[in-house]
Design a protein that fits this description.
Rossmann fold; Alpha-Beta Plaits; 2 domains; 6-stranded mixed β-sheet; 4-stranded antiparallel β-sheet; binds adenosine-5'-triphosphate; ABC transporter ATP-binding protein
Length: about 325
């Protein structure tokens, strides 16, 4: 069994260049008429922290299920460490925290986490795992008497019960309070610093922005973006313009709607907030229209806005492709 020092350092047996962690090769998955995953190819590398983003029903959980060998692809192949997902899991190379699935009832937290430590080929000491997951104080509680956030922490403890190379987390912080979230990500950062690969699906885009060094965006089963959070924000090409109107501004506010490249406009009191895909032209037009903006600021948009933009663009492209197809009939 590993010591707590090994738990925090990852026993020093990993590092960049130690091979391919996971590979999807032209993977699709259908459930009857529903195409949940559509021709995804990607490779995960050692030491990466990867956020998996997508709207509800995009195909994240289905992809994770295939990564873990819980579902077979309808087409294509998934490998983990060059072999089957099943073998990687049997070898204890993967720690998993899934979104759903009840925890075993009628057992205490400590018993359940100890079981996870015992069955892991390189399991850690149970007390260390309980402490790291912040559940030492509820170790003697029955698992089915926990709050939602406490249950998540127990799932987290199980995912980190041993020295795995890949940690897969499906919406891990749902139900956690702010301090639990911060503690959770501090532990995950330490896991990544130790060279482990961490893949997490989330709807909290600010978490993806601050934690992940790579962001995958899946939409309607297709991988539509793969890069750093900065790449994805730049790809959305949006800038945020904000300013206050001066009391003497008497130009028609409707003119703001007609600025070049405006994708959204919000006027609250005398404060104007604009998202624009052509900020230079929009700012010039603001002055041309006769406004005297006070405290004008132009900045990049957050990952959330970029995500909405690129998924919206994909919807528009899909819609026009299907219209073109219909017209060709
Ligand atoms: N067992 C199933 N049978 C039929 N359809 C399914 C099944 N599992 C998933 N789907 C469908 O496949 C699509 C992708 O679902 P999936 O759960 O992978 O999405 P998700 O991105 O994880 O969504 P969420 O963010 O809401 O958890 C959805 O349209 C869903 O309804």
């Amino acid at each position: 069994m590993s010591t707590s020092t090994e738990q925090s350092t990852g026993a020093g047996r990993r590092g960049p260049g130690s091979g391919e962690v996971a590979a999807f090769r032209n993977v699709s998955k259908n459930f009857g008429a529903v195409q949940a995953v559509n021709d995804i190819s990607l490779t995960l590398h050692p030491g990466e922290t990867v956020a998996f983003l997508g709207p509800n029903g995009a195909g994240k959980s289905t992809s994770i299920d295939m990564l873990l060998g819980l579902r077979d692809p309808s087409a294509g192949s998934v490998t983990l460490f060059g072999g089957t997902p099943r073998q990687a899991i049997l070898d204890g190379r993967v720690g998993v925290m899934l979104q759903s699935g009840g925890l075993m009832p009628d057992v205490k937290v400590r018993e359940l986490v100890k079981f996870a430590c015992d069955i892991h080929p390189r399991g850690y000491d149970v007390d260390e795992v309980l402490k790291t997951a912040g559940i030492a104080d509820i170790a003697d509680r029955l698992v089915d008497k926990l709050s939602g956030g406490q249950e998540q922490r127990v799932r987290f403890a199980i995912a980190t019960a041993g020295d795995s190379d890949l940690i897969v987390l499906d919406e891990p912080t749902t139900g956690m309070d702010v301090s639990a979230r911060q503690a959770f990500w501090a532990v995950m950062r330490a896991q990544a610093d130790a060279g482990r690969t961490v893949l997490f699906a989330t709807h909290y885009l600010e978490e993806a922005d601050s934690i992940a060094d790579r962001v995958l965006v899946i939409h309607r089963g297709r991988l539509i973006a793969d890069g750093t959070a900065a790449d994805i924000k730049a790809r959305a090409g949006l800038r945020k313009i904000s300013f206050d109107l001066r009391p003497e501004d008497d130009s028609d506010l409707a003119l703001l709607n007609n600025l070049p490249g405006v994708t959204s406009l919000d006027i609250s009191g005398r404060t104007v907030r604009i998202n624009s895909n052509d900020a230079d032209a929009a700012v010039a037009a603001i002055y041309r229209a006769g406004f005297y903006p006070r405290g004008l600021e132009v900045s990049g948009v957050g990952l959330e806005q970029a995500f909405l933009t690129i998924t919206g663009e994909q919807d528009a492209a899909d819609e026009s492709a299907s219209l073109a197809k219909e017209n060709a009939r």
